[in-house]
Amino acid sequence: MPKRARITAFALLSSVALLTSACTGQSSSGADDDASKETTINFWHAWSADSEVKAVKTLVAGFEKAHPNIHVNVVGNMTDDKINQALRAGGSKAPDVISSFTTNAVGKFCSSGALVDLNPFFEKAGIDPDKTFPAAMNEYTQFDGDRCSVPLLGDAYGLYYNKTAFEKAGISAPPKTWSEFESDAKKLTIPQGDGFKQLGFMPNYHGWETTTEHYLGQFSPTYFDKSGKSTIATDPAVADAFTVQKKLVDALGGYRKLETYRSKLGDEWGPKHPFHTGQVAMQLDGEWRLGMALEAKPGFEIGVAPLPVPDDQADQYGKGYITGTIAGIAATSKKQNAAWELVKYITTDTDAVVGFSNAIHNVPSTLAALKSPKLEYDPRFKTFLDIAANPDSTTAPSSVNGGVYLTTIQELGYAYESGKVTDLDKGLADAARQIDTDIAQAK
Amino acid sequence: MSTLTLASKRRRSALRTLAFMSPWLIGFAVFFAYPLISTVYFSFMHYDGFRPPTWSGTQNWTYVFEHYPFFWPALRNTLWLVVVMVSLRVVFGLGIGLLITKIKTGTGVFRTLFYLPYLAPPVAATMAFAFLLNPGTGPVNSILEKVGIPAPGWFNDPTWSKPALTLLALWGIGDLMVIFMAALLDVPQEQYEAAELDGASAWQRFRYVTLPNISPIVMFAVVTGVIQTMQYYTQPLIAGKVASGVIQGAGTQFEPGYPDKSTLTLPQLVYNLGFQRFDYGSACVVALVLFALSMAFTAFLMRRRGGLIQAGD
């Protein structure tokens, strides 16, 4: 290569390397600001409904009243994509505090250093997270000992059931084990033509909230061993969950018939949800369904209970799957002490958490708030408060690549329920290998 | 002295040329060359958008081709759409264009009727199609059942989901129809008259007069169709979401191409890898595969175009 060409090529490659590396975000410590001085911080959140935005404003107003020197610039309706870009870019308009609905991203936020580790802040404030937050929420807000997020209200999953249909079918109480559940689901199913007049339960993984991770929550799987390797092929709880679901699918008419019936039903977020209309007698769902179902004014009485547990875990009846919203402090923030004051207030101040929970009807995320007499709720909502406080309740652990492992499990679930995969052990072994490969790629 | 003046003039002339070309050169460098070089560069880097990129060699390439479970299904789907959907769109667009240029009355009405669907926003159009083709409640299947034709599962059946997307693409044929109409009206009438005098049939007139005259437009339609299909994102994503009943949003898992990955396309993988997994390196690999495929299809078609014109001559 001629000398001039070599120089040109070198210059070009150097420019490209400089330009591309200049685009990368750099974490910097911003915890040396004085939180007692006059300052303004940016708070980005994802809530978008008018009532939710109003509730966030009220929450922040309470903080500003308690901390008159810290002003909060609240920005709502921020999707994860926008939050991720801002966390990467930093700058004066970027958020100091973020909140996201995606608990699955915690592993990524922690391992990449996008959000700061809050352990030193908790220690300095004399707050013990283990004694402050419910166990499952405590788990999904940290990764590998790095607590880069805090729970900001939560979601608990339980069983909704049509009490009127139960009475007609001669069922006196909600099922406590999966065996009872299958028996009740069959009793509640009334066939009609090629479909159903009433389906006891929609077991398919596309049945709105009947996802693999929500089923699995009732079986308390481990997901990973201490070295971070997937245990789904070796933990019998996972195979048990897949087997129970497949048995339900087969018992209630088979995958194809159920999928065809599902395609005729209303959508998850509309008033024509099949539980509201009485087309499905039992529904696995989050605490928010109660308000939505009551608003739809169904022609039957709604019952709420914890989801069933495996027959050999009957003593753990009352547990459930937990997830929720998280809050954290951007590593690029230059006002981390002031940001911590906001995070501490909105996530650990009992009255603030209770007020916010009352306003947006999510489950409170501290143990103290869960017991607060100031909580306002329909008596049936108590089931979800108990599930959230239950130490046996579970969640999906954080992973370095977010929820990719859950997608892999979900894909196996689709293949197994439809009959595309028949050898479950092999399917689980393949999925475990895929999960390990994906994690290695992300590290 | 005269040599120096000449050299100076040449240099000045070259600079002037460059100055006139500079808007294009800057645009090319900023919007094409730099992104392309960056994409190649990042495909060999481990980069999550937060930490500085680090060299990873061919790891991203190996991961995408050997371990990423959605790559091959998405590639197969994309190629199916390129071959079937693009071909049918060109044939259908040309057919409608021919039909409207032939009819004597109501041309404006038909032209408007066929063009209007193209103006429908892709999200709204896809949702409307998902409603029409709903296997349980959609009017299309109700009609098919009434006339005794077995009703397909459309967007809920992996066998029928891509044909359903093709139907949606054919419904929005207005863009190609207008282009083909303009080309068809440009074909010299005397050539048709000469062919008729020679006793050419309608098919022969189309094959040996119409087609060679409009071949550049056919080529344009095919090449742009291939490139658009390589970027096909919104319609398959929305169709899959509506049919599955799962809304992709904050806190939900990646839902790859319901049903059974049949609506998964390569651009969806770029989004999944880049903006959900933050694995920009692997996302760049998929983007480069798309680029290479687009280039290969375009080069192949450009070569074939020579043959098409020759056959018509």
TrEMBL record, chain B:
Q: Which SUPFAM superfamilies match?
A: MetI-like (SSF161098)
Q: Where in the cell is it found?
A: Cell membrane
Give the stretches traversing the membrane.
21-44, 79-101, 113-133, 164-185, 206-227, 280-301
User: Under what name is this protein listed?
Assistant: Sugar ABC transporter permease
UniProt KW keywords: Cell membrane, Membrane, Transmembrane, Transmembrane helix, Transport
In the UniProt record, does the keyword ATP-binding occur?
no
Per the UniProt entry, what species is this protein from, by scientific name?
Streptomyces justiciae
InterPro entries, A to Z:
ABC_transporter_permease (IPR051393), MetI-like (IPR000515), MetI-like_sf (IPR035906)
Q: Which Pfam families match?
A: BPD_transp_1
- What is the topology of this protein in the membrane according to its UniProt annotation? Multi-pass membrane protein
Q: What family does the database annotate?
A: Belongs to the binding-protein-dependent transport system permease family.
Segments forming domain ABC transmembrane type-1: 75-301
